[in-house]
Design a protein that fits this description.
Elements: H1 4-15, H2 18-24, H3 26-32, E1 64-65, E2 79-81, H4 99-104, E3 108-109, E4 121-123, E5 132-133, E6 136-140, H5 148-155, E7 157-164, E8 175-182, H6 195-208, E9 222-229, E10 232-241, E11 247-248, H7 255-258, E12 266-267, E13 270-279, H8 284-312
Parallel strand pairs: 2-13
Antiparallel strand pairs: 1-4, 2-8, 3-6, 4-5, 6-7, 7-8, 9-10, 10-13, 11-12
The protein binds 2-acetamido-2-deoxy-beta-D-glucopyranose (7 copies).
One 2-acetamido-2-deoxy-beta-D-glucopyranose is lined by residues 70, 73, 249-251, 255-256.
Keywords: Membrane, Signal, Transmembrane, Transmembrane helix
Transmembrane segments: 287-312
Signal peptide: 1-22
């Protein structure tokens, strides 16, 4: 009986030790791992617009797509997440309120079971990195973060490819997204009529809970809204800007089927998003300090008061 209680104490001490707590929490556990390769290669500098125009440094606002007919057509980079957003949002991760958690807050997630169903596209953001393949393709998840993107792969829907402007010549950290709305897989994933402009505006519609009037947008249209996921709340301000993309169908992938009598394949507007985190979950430090600071000592005192007499007897 005298030996059983000190062991109960050992067990409790191991169980409530900070390390055991840390390893239970994926966010703290990942912070204990060696740091991953830094994303930025030169000091980040953010112009007032929140991004550098790819056009001013040999880049393009159209992606590079293999095997188009005629050759050389691209898809519009029609959404930018401004580098004036909170730094945490620009980090490509799901933890700590990062980019992937932001996307989940409006029901966009990585591809179905990690499989890449679409073809790769490339882009040159004029940042000195030259032409790079897409970082990843992200799909509407039909409100099911686990399997919803499989539905999108089969039934079609909203999706986007993205790149980060972080090369040595224009290291803003802004995220450039090429969004569109595609037909079901059986139709070869072609883009629906007006599907670049609508793909952009349904994303903005979901972020702002507003029906965006695609055909009436101008370069003075603005919207805002809030979304949440994983305990993080994001406040997004959206501004449509002209001058980056042209208002045209020429050179746009699938232009003949995407353009309509009332709109070119791309209307020439880019939605620029400035994202701020307005609420976060109680973080690890907030959790550990009250727990160890206030709860552990009384608990230990109580344990020592009741158990120590047995150890020394
Ligand atoms: C980019 O994607 C193409 C396929 O579209 C692939 O052949 C090529 O190897 C990729 N390049 C890199 C650097 O991953
Ligand atoms: C939200 O996204 C879905 C899927 O793309 C779309 O059907 C719907 O119209 C969007 N909602 C708004 C308000 O834009
Ligand atoms: C677009 O503008 C026209 C003319 O100003 C107006 O009649 C129409 O209701 C607007 N459409 C939307 C969706 O706002
Ligand atoms: C907005 O678009 C108009 C043409 O529709 C153009 O004259 C004006 O310069 C643009 N303004 C900005 C701030 O880009
Ligand atoms: C489409 O773009 C061309 C320029 O390439 C322009 O002349 C035409 O008016 C535009 N059409 C629409 C419907 O916006
Ligand atoms: C579609 O783009 C090609 C160039 O890629 C151009 O030659 C053609 O005129 C465009 N079609 C229309 C209807 O704008
Ligand atoms: C695109 O150009 C057409 C024709 O000039 C114009 O009617 C339309 O408003 C333009 N679209 C935008 C978004 O500026």
């Amino acid at each position: 009986m005298a030996s059983a209680k000190p062991c109960a104490l050992c067990f409790l001490l191991i169980y409530i030790s900070p390390m055991a707590l840390a390893l239970d929490d994926p966010q703290i556990a990942s912070s204990l791992l060696p740091p991953t390769k830094p994303t930025f290669h030169s000091p980040r500098s953010v112009p007032s617009e929140g991004y550098y125009s790819p056009l001013s440094n040999g880049g393009s606002m159209l992606t590079i797509v293999d095997g188009t007919f005629p050759a050389g057509q691209g898809e519009p980079l029609n959404i930018i997440i401004s580098a004036n957003s909170d730094q945490a949002v620009l980090v490509d991760q799901e933890t700590d309120g990062g980019l992937r958690n932001y996307w989940l807050s409006f029901d966009y997630a990585g591809e179905c079971l990690g499989q890449h169903a679409g073809s790769q596209q490339a882009a040159n953001l004029g940042d000195g990195n030259g032409v790079l393949n897409e970082t990843d393709e992200i799909r509407y998840d039909y409100n099911d973060a686990q399997l919803g993107t499989c539905t999108e792969t089969i039934e079609g829907g909203g999706h986007f490819r993205y790149w980060t402007q972080n090369g040595p010549k224009a290291n803003s950290g802004a995220i450039f997204m090429a969004s569109s709305y595609e037909l079901p897989l059986t139709d070869g994933h072609d883009i629906v009529s007006n599907g670049y402009n609508l793909g952009r505006d349904w994303i903005i519609g979901n972020i702002t809970q507003t029906n965006i009037p695609t055909l009436n947008l101008t370069n003075s249209s603005t919207y805002s809204g809030t979304t949440s996921y994983g305990g993080y709340t994001y406040s997004t301000s959206v501004k449509y800007v002209s001058g980056l993309l042209q208002n045209t169908s020429v050179g746009i992938n699938h232009n003949l089927t995407v353009m309509t009598s009332s709109s070119n394949a791309t209307d020439g507007l880019v939605a620029v998003l400035e994202v701020k985190i307005t609420e976060k979950p109680a973080n690890s430090a907030d959790f550990l300090i009250p727990f160890l600071g206030w709860q552990l000592p009384p608990l230990l005192l109580l344990l020592f008061a009741t158990i120590l007499p047995f150890i020394y007897l």
